[in-house]
Amino acid sequence: MSLTYSQYTLDKLEGLLKTPGYKVRYEKGNFKTGACILENSKVIVVNKFSNLENKIIALVELVKVLNIDENLLDDKQKQFLYTLKQTTLQF
After folding, report:
1. How many domains does the chain have?
2. How many angstroms separate the CA atoms of 21 and 43, rounded?
3. 36-82: pLDDT as tens digits
4. Do the domain assignments include residue 9?
5. Nearby residues of 82 by Cβ (< 8 Å), 6 or more positions away
6. Which of the listed residues 22, 41, 50, 86 has the most CB atoms within 10 Å of its CB?
7. Higher pLDDT residue, 1 or 52?
8. Would you say residue 1 has pLDDT above 60?
9. d(Cα 49, Cα 91) in Å, to the nearest integer?
10. CA-to-CA distance for 51 and 39, rounded, in angstroms?
11. Of all helices (H) and strands (E), which one includes residue 43?
12. Residue 4 to residue 31: CA distance in whole angstroms
């Protein structure tokens, strides 16, 4: 499945992360990656100067490695999570 790089997709990703308690913040900084998790907290910092595609790619890569409790998600979010975990992103 291919992922569309749109504001709608970014909003869905943010919603998926928000449900288990993650907070997504957009900040400027000297970090090269599109996003990072602040030490042992549930705060994800995304480079606000990245373009939409890079923001989505960064969040998808984080979603793939985070241990998200699926019991907290609704059915649509679970399906989206399964889809993301099976998606290979093209850089």
Report:
1. 1
2. 9
3. 777 778 888 898 989 999 999 999 999 998 889 999 999 999 999 99
4. no
5. none
6. 22
7. 52
8. no
9. 18
10. 25
11. strand 43-47
12. 25
